[in-house]
Amino acid sequence: MKYLKNDCKCGNLTVFPKTWERKNASLAKAWYINYRFYDPNFRDKYPEGKQVRIKGMNEYSTLEERQAATRKLLEYELHLLEVCDYNPITGAYNEYATAETRDYIVSPETPFSKALDEAFARIGYCNNAMLNMRSTLKYLKISIAKLRLDTKPVEDIKRRHLIMILDQCEQDKTTFTDSTYNHYLKDLKALFSVLEEIETIEYSPAEKMKFREYEKEKKELLTADERLQIDTHLPALNYPLWKFIHIFCNSGARTPEIMRLKYEDVDLEGQLVTYTVNKKRKNKLVTRPIKDSVLHLWQELINESSTGNYLFSKGLKPGPKPIREDQIKKRWRYWIQQKLKIRKTLYSLKYLNTDTMDALYGADVAAHLNQHSVQMVNKHYAVNQSDRKNNIIKLAPNSFTADTKKPA
Asked: How does pLDDT run across 217-237, given as a tens digit for each residue?
């Protein structure tokens, strides 16, 4: 199936007879190229798509000539569909499309929505980031279509159009916070960055757009009572999940990174784990230490595993196949939020560990564990850092008269 402009699509182009490329292909019956074309605007009239047949090769009487003509017709029809946006139902096509547009990976004349799809296909983020961006792109394209910008050539898209699109998204969605706005803008910047990189556009219209500033809610950490509740009840209910929680909480890793871990990534003797981190469309290897407090749990994992195994496979046990990251969130939702009635999220574990490390050893050590910058730790993860600084200030011994002497 080929996906085309305006949410149209077509099936694979096939030739009758199937043996048309053979040296002994028969000329006894008429040849034709066949495919089905689907246009959502004509779903009622053509629920199974419009069948298209091309028979122009039959005027040639020799096998070699008919085969050559068939190849040219196939190539031309694909060019009409993919480059000229040909619609066999309406007969419309882009008469200005030329061979020059084929000089581009994605032509500057590509309709805006299709260009975003092409950029998304090339962006190369990790699975979870791709799922999030696919969701964002879905709502962006709805707003783009409402504003009738979906068929506008991507080279003609300006900053004002992107502002209009984000405003439309805000009108359409029942929950659209400043955080949502920034998330959508971040994805738009990333998609246009791809189009700029492959020279579809000369510069990104999203480049100078500013993120919204807003007061972020303080992240809620698991309380001591909640951690005790999990540690007391969960081992009997779901021991592999309990073990994962302890390992994940103390690892400094993100869930996609820990779910990709294999047996050979762990050095128990050196107490080190090598993670594959995907950021900004690049994979890099980072090494994080194993804390003494969870070393025995890593040892359990390794004892249950073997070379090539993923450490958290089916049932959160070592196995030959990885599982999706959302399986962890589903387990947390069921066992922690529903069974134990603890409403905090899975990622509160990462915030908890980072904040505790910051309190004990400072932001530099916490940043080293997470492989983040100190600024990132201070801004996002050390959620109680401000309270700790306030307490230090409260206990400070200096005052207006503390270092002065009374007059004689």
From this structure: 777 888 999 999 999 999 999
The answer to whether 17 touches 25, Cβ cutoff 8 Å, is yes
The tens digit of pLDDT for each residue in 297-343 reads: 999 999 999 999 999 999 999 999 998 888 899 999 999 999 999 99
DSSP codes, 119-183? HHHH----HHHHHHHHHHHHHHHHHHHHTT-TTSBGGG--HHHHHHHHHHHHHH-S---HHHHHH
Q: How far is CA 96 from the centre of its chain?
A: 35
Residues contacting 336, CB < 8 A, separation 6+: 230, 234, 342, 344, 346
Q: Which of 365, 357, 392 is nearest to 221 (CA)?
A: 357
Percent of the chain's residues with pLDDT above 70: 86
pTM across the whole model:
0.57
| Nearest partner of 320 among 330, 331, 306, judged by Cα | 306
- Choose among 217, 240, 253, 234: nearest CA to 350: 253
**Chain length of the chain:** 408
Q: Cα–Cα distances in Å, from 346 out to 96, 136, 225, 321, 325?
A: 53, 22, 16, 23, 12
Structure tokens at 308: 């090539």
